[in-house]
């Protein structure tokens, strides 16, 4: 039986993890896409960023693994992304702006939550 912290993760998302390197414009470089289990909640809310400032995010997600700030995520299966090559207007790629993990009492399982912000498309 899975830990309660991850037992409700019934959705799939594509994760492009941040590599820790930055491009010439100061944007995080991302790695190869992988599929993870999530519980995705689409609603605007405020969360704390890594510097302790309140920021607005477009969605939050409980995830099954550690996710670096600057990573990108898309709600849907990896097979769907590979088949279409892009998201629809309702399922846009989002950037991870906050990450928080809370351990259980025995520190054997963690509730991991990310704050996501829509990536603005270039026009």
Brief rundown of the structure:
The protein is mainly beta. Helices cover 6% and strands 50% of the residues. It is globular.
List the helices and strands and how they pair.
Elements: E1 11-16, E2 18-22, E3 28-30, E4 34-48, E5 54-63, E6 72-75, H1 78-84, E7 94-103, E8 110-118
Antiparallel strand pairs: 1-4, 1-6, 2-3, 4-5, 5-8, 6-7, 7-8
Structure notes:
The structure is a single chain. The chain is mainly β and 123 residues long. It contains one helix and eight strands, in the order E-E-E-E-E-E-H-E-E. It has a six-stranded antiparallel β-barrel with strand order 1-4-5-8-7-6. A two-stranded antiparallel sheet has the order 2-3. The termini are far apart.
Q: Name the helix and strand elements from N-terminus to C-terminus, one letter apiece.
A: EEEEEEHEE
Total helical elements: 1
User: Proportion of β residues?
Assistant: over 45%
Structural class by sheet pairing and helices: mainly beta
Q: Characterize the overall form.
A: globular
Measured between the Cα atoms of the first and last residue, the distance is 48 Å
């Amino acid at each position: 039986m899975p830990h309660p912290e991850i037992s409700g993760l019934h959705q799939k998302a594509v994760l492009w993890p941040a590599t820790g390197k930055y491009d010439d414009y100061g944007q995080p470089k991302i790695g190869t896409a992988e599929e993870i289990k999530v519980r995705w909640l689409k609603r605007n809310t405020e969360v704390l960023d890594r510097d302790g400032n309140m920021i607005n995010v477009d969605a939050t997600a409980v995830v099954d693994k550690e996710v670096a700030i600057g990573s990108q995520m898309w709600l849907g299966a990896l097979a769907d992304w590979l088949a279409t090559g892009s998201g629809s207007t309702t399922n846009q790629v989002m950037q991870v702006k906050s990450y928080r993990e809370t351990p259980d009492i025995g520190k054997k399982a963690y509730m991991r939550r990310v704050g996501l912000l829509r990536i603005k498309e270039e026009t």
